[in-house]
Structure formats: C-alpha cells, structure tokens
Amino acid sequence: MIKFTNVSKCYQDDTFAVRNLDVEIEQGEFFVIIGPSGCGKTTMLKMINRLIEISAGEVSINGKSISEYNIHELRWNIGYVLQQIALFPHMSIAENVAVVPELKKWDRKRVERRVDELLEMVGLNPEMYRNRKPNELSGGQQQRIGVIRALAADPEIILMDEPFSALDPISRMKLQDDMLELQRKIRKTLVFVTHDMQEALKLGDRILVMKDGEIEQLGTPEEIVYNPANEFVETFVGQNQQIVLRDTQGVLSESGARR
Ligand code: ADP
User: Fold this and answer.
1) Are strands 214-219 and 206-211 parallel, antiparallel or unpaired?
2) 2-10: strand order across its sheet
3) Calpha distance 80→159 (Å, rounded)
4) How far is the CA of 162 from the centre of ligand 1 (A)?
5) What element of type H or E holds 108?
6) Nearest protein Cα to ligand 1, atom 24
7) CA–centroid distance for 115 within its chain
C-alpha cells in the first residue's frame, strides 16, 4: 500500500535523517513507528505526504510514486494528525471538521451529515458540540476533533505524529482505547509515530523500531517483546520494562483478540 524503496533523506548539513529505508506498510494496518528522539520518525512520516522531500529512493502509494500524484489530491487523501492540537481557534468545531470536505466542494447537506456522524463516532453529542469553539473543549476532546478532522473526507491513509503525547495520562489512555475501537470500524491504513513503547505495543499491528535513521526491527508487538532483534531493541523495551511486564499479558491478549 505505502512502499518505501531504498529511501534516504539528507539535510543540507549532510546529516542523514533516514538512510536506505525499505518498508512496506499494508492496507488497513495500524503501523507504529517508534524510536528515540531524532531517529527519523517524523521525517519518515512527512515524506509520505510530501511535507518533506525525499533525497534518494522512492515512496509509492498503491503502486504509484508519490511524485506522480497531484500534490493537493495527495494531501487531501491523506489525513494528518499532529501532537499540538492544530484546530483553528476562531472556527466552530463543525467548521474545523469540515475543512477538507469544503475544499473538495462537497454540498452543504453532505458536509453537515458527515460532521454529525463523526462527532457521534467519538462520543460527542453533535447538538452540544458542533457550534462550540475549540477553547470550549477539554484537551482530550480537542484531540478527538483533530482525529475526526483527519477522517472527514474519508482518506485511505491517516498519518499521526505523537497525537496523544501532550495529554494527561488518563485522557491519553482513553484516546488510545477510542483509537483502537475506531480502527475496528474504519480499517484505514494508520501510520502512527510515538516514542512510548507501551503505546506502541497497545496500538500497533506491527511496530517499526528505528535508531539513527535506520531500521532496528520490524515486527508484531509479540515479536518485539519476546524476540528483540538486538540489544538496542531489548534495551528500548527494557526501559519500559516495569510497564511492559505489568501490561504484557493484558496488552498482548487484547491485541491478539483484535486480530
Ligand atoms: P524524530 O521524529 O525521530 O524525533 P526527526 O525525523 O524529526 O526525528 O529528525 C531526524 C534527524 O534529522 C535528527 O537528527 C534531526 O536533527 C534532523 N533534522 C530534522 N529536520 C531537520 C532540518 N530541517 N534540517 C537539518 N536537520 C534536520
């Protein structure tokens, strides 16, 4: 579905942000990219919707190089959720959610129906919330709006860059649960960046562990925990050992049941 073929990104100062990446992300999978700060996660994500230009190699979507897509078409068909809630403060919740459908010139009735459907999907009563401004919502509710805004025009792919890391632990857990529930319904191709191993194990169908712009391991949560490819992965899981050990049974059986 999304295929990286020998992809590198080198910035002007000659640092390689990512180097010779070969990865294929499958249709409908919850794909998590994890690694320490600066390992190239965001670079990898932003190359998919061409927010960052590739230096060498090729990224293709459905067999066609991303450089061959019209840039607007590409961006409108890829949802994007950021860490910092990037809602437009002067616009209502409904207007915020409707940004891409409006760009695509959907008719008004269709947009209104879609906004209400999405609000309901994440447990927010449309009558109560559609006319509010973002600052009249909690941080967790705003981030839910960020998620449904990315879904609004029904894109095939959603990119999420540490979408829950600014939230308090309880809201964060709740949004992770909601995200799993949502994915069961929508079955999109989700590419999700995090530096939190517990989050990766809970959400990912597969997890890509990166270090210094290269792949250390690509595997299921079970493989990452029980068969780490090398010492780095082992240590990276181990740093979260208390949490992982406490949760592994629950997390893995839950993710097992999901498949
Ligand atoms: P992560 O998301 O894993 O924290 P990034 O993809 O943001 O990592 O960055 C990967 C590497 O590329 C880092 O070493 C970072 O300093 C470098 N980098 C990112 N953006 C730029 C830039 N615009 N110019 C030069 N180097 C950059």
Assistant:
1) antiparallel
2) 16-25, 2-10, 56-61, 64-65
3) 5
4) 15
5) helix 108-121
6) 11
7) 21
- Cα first-last separation, the chain: 19
Sequential DSSP letters for 121-155? HTT--HHHHTT--GGGS-HHHHHHHHHHHHHTT--
Q: What is the tens place of the pLDDT at every residue in 243-259?
A: 554 454 455 544 444 43
CA separation for the pair 200, 191 (Å, rounded) = 11
pLDDT digits (tens, 9 = 90+) for 80-105: 998 876 799 999 999 999 999 999 99
In this structure, what token pair is assigned to residue 256? 């097992």
CA angle 220, 193, 35 (to 5 degrees): 70
41 lines ligand 1 (CB under 6 A): yes
Atom 12 of ligand 1, residue of closest alpha carbon:
17
Residue 167 CB partners (closer than 8 Å, separation 6+)? 139, 140, 143, 175
pTM: 0.89
Q: Is the CB of 51 under 6 A from ligand 1?
A: no
Residue length of the chain: 259
By DSSP bridging, strand 2-10 and strand 16-25 are antiparallel
User: Encoding tokens for residue 65?
Assistant: 């190089």
5 burial (CB, 10 Å; 0-12 / 13-18 / 19+) is middle
- Shortest-distance Cα residue to atom 26 of ligand 1: 11
CA-proximal residue: ligand 1, atom 27 (nearest): 11
